[in-house]
Amino acid sequence: MKAVAGTSATEPGALSDRVRVRRQPARGHYDRAVVEAILDEGFVCHLGFSVGDTTWVLPTAYGRDGDVLYLHGAPANHALATLQQGVTACATVTLVDGLVLARSAFHHSINYRSVVVFGQASLVTDVEEKRRALEVVLEHIVPGRSIDARPPTDGELRKTSVLRLPISESSAKVRTGGPVDDLEDLGLPVWAGQLPLVTGSGAPVAEPSTVVEHPPAYVTTYRRVG
Ligand SMILES: Cc1cc2nc3c(=O)[nH]c(=O)nc-3n(C[C@H](O)[C@H](O)[C@H](O)COP(=O)(O)OP(=O)(O)OC[C@H]3O[C@@H](n4cnc5c(N)ncnc54)[C@H](O)[C@@H]3O)c2cc1C
Q: Which of 33, 121, 29, 30 is nearest to 71 (CA)?
C-alpha cells in the first residue's frame, strides 16, 4: 500500500464539526501533511455547491499553492461565478489505490485516500497572483511544463477566472489493507485479497504539426507521485 506521509498518532483533531469523520473515524486524518500529500497526487477535484434546491458536483482541475487550492475556468463558468459570490464550496479529491476482494460480497471494499475541503472561494483579481495561480495549476498537472509553454497573454488572462479556495477546513480519509471477512467465512473456497491499482500513462502521441521531434522528459517520465 502507498504510504501516507505525515500520519501520526498525535495529529490534531478535526478543525470543525463538518469535517470530523464520523463513519470509520480511525480512517480520518486532519494533519496538514496527509491532506497535502493527497491533494498533490491528484489533479481533479469534484466541486460541490448548492443554490436553492439544486446541488451541483462538477469535476474540475486544480493546483495547490501552500494552503490554497486554485480553480480556473471561463468567466461564464457557472460554478466559478457562483462560488465567488460566497456560496460554500465542497471540493473532494479521490485517489483509488486498490480493490479489496473479500470472501463475502458484503465485505468487498476499495483502498483509497481522499480529501474533503469546505470553504468560501474568492476571485483572484490581482494580475500577478492570477498569473502565478495559472502556472501553479499547470505545474500541478504536468510538472515542468510551464518552462516550455507560452505564458498567457493579457487577453487570455481576461478570458480566465481564477478562484482561491483555502484548504484550512479539510479532512482526509484513508483505507488501507485487506478484506475484513467474517470469521465463519475464512474457510470458504473463494479467493480473497487486494488488487492494487495505479495511475499510469501510455506512450506519448505527438501532434502531427509539432516542430519538436522528441517529447520532453517530463512527458516520457510522467507519473503521479505515490
Ligand atoms: C473511492 C471511494 C469509494 C467509497 N465507496 C463507498 C461506498 O460504496 N459506500 C460507503 O458507504 N462509503 C464509501 N466510501 C466512503 C465515503 O466517502 C464516506 O466516507 C462514507 O460513506 C461515510 O459517509 P458519511 O456521510 O457517513 O460521512 P461522515 O463521516 O458523516 O462525514 C463527515 C465528514 O467527514 C469527512 N469525510 C467523510 N468521508 C470522507 C472521505 N471519503 N474523504 C475525506 N473526508 C471524508 C468530511 O469532511 C465529511 O463532511 C468511499 C470512499 C472512497 C474514497
A: 121
Give residue 211 CA to ligand 1 midpoint distance, Å. Answer: 47
For residue 180, with 0-12 CB atoms within 10 Å meaning exposed, 13-18 middle and 19 or more buried, which class applies?
A: exposed
SS3 168: coil
pLDDT cut 90: percent of the chain above it: 91
Atom 48, ligand 1: residue with shortest CA distance = 19
pLDDT reported for residue 14: 73
If you average pLDDT over residues 57-79, what whole number do you get? Answer: 97
Q: What is the mean pLDDT of residues 79-104?
A: 97
Distance CA(206)–CA(204), nearest Å, equals 6
Residue 114 Cβ < 6 Å to ligand 1: yes
Cβ 22 under 6 angstroms from ligand 1: yes
Confidence of residue 224 (pLDDT cuts 50, 70, 90): confident
Helix, strand, coil percentages (3-state) for the chain, rounded to 5, are 25, 30, 45
Q: Evaluate if residue 8 carries a pLDDT over 70.
A: no
Closest residue to atom 21 of ligand 1, CA basis: 23
